[in-house]
User: Fold this.
Amino acid sequence: MTRPVAAYTDIVDLDPAPGVALLEQSGFEVRILDDGSPADIIAQAADAQALLIGYAPVTAQVIEALPRLRVVATQSAGVDTVDVAACAAHGVEVMNVPGAATEEVASHALAMTLSLLRGLPMLDREVRAGRWDGSRERLHRLSEVTVGVLGLGRIGRAYASAVRPLVDRVVAYDPLASPPPGVEAMSLDEVVAAATVLSLHLPLTEKTRHLLDRDRLGAMPAGSFVVNVARGALIDSEALREALDSGHITAAALDVLEHEPPRPNDPLVAHPRTVVTPHAAYLSPASARDYVVLQARNVVTFFAERANHEHDTASFSASPTRQETSS
Assistant:
């Protein structure tokens, strides 16, 4: 009997070995492709039933070229590199890993928030430049700060709960979720207008792309801060650069950018009022293990449930004949 094929389209920065082992133990033939481009996937995985992706684009062209494909498993909470509509049209399931690094990403956002409010990155640069004077930075007393949270999924809720005891007020917007205890629900524009620090925890969709645009950045309080550990395209990069240049936004901490890795001379990476980390908020030894194992387990579980469903359907279809025989 031919084993089902599971193909890793691209290896980013996590060791796939635990996932490969789990898949092989479950009866899959596992392939690791060369570069994860659409052409590479079509050429090397035309017979694949499962794709396990890092950042590889799974386009409609790819889906149409893989007639046996049944599931696409991401190695992240996001699915924005997958043409979900095309998958649905071809009966392909899309599975993500929503909880593997909740603690890590929420902690990263919290660390960024505190470092901005106390001016740590800018003060460090001042000292290294030979200036022993912190009076030029606008430093904040935490008990007088309002933190705004956009998005109350697992990470947004964890971040809001973690920052709440440290600051005066936490306000949040999410049209689909209620806030955790001690956090006030507001409209999107009310949160933007109230926040000393605005932290983004939303998925990237056509509706949320450039959600923080020139107008919304302008509506934030003068001297406020932006933290983004979600998706770079939630923010209009040019508008943010302008707001930083003018001083309306004091500083921004970004774990994600619109273009990753950044283009040469990216103005936000080079800006003296930004802190940029390389899309690393999710990383720890524990999360690295969980992302890989849970991604592979999603594939194994999908095919096990599919096999059980087919077995149950076959049994159900046969049952009237057995009943007629016994009656």
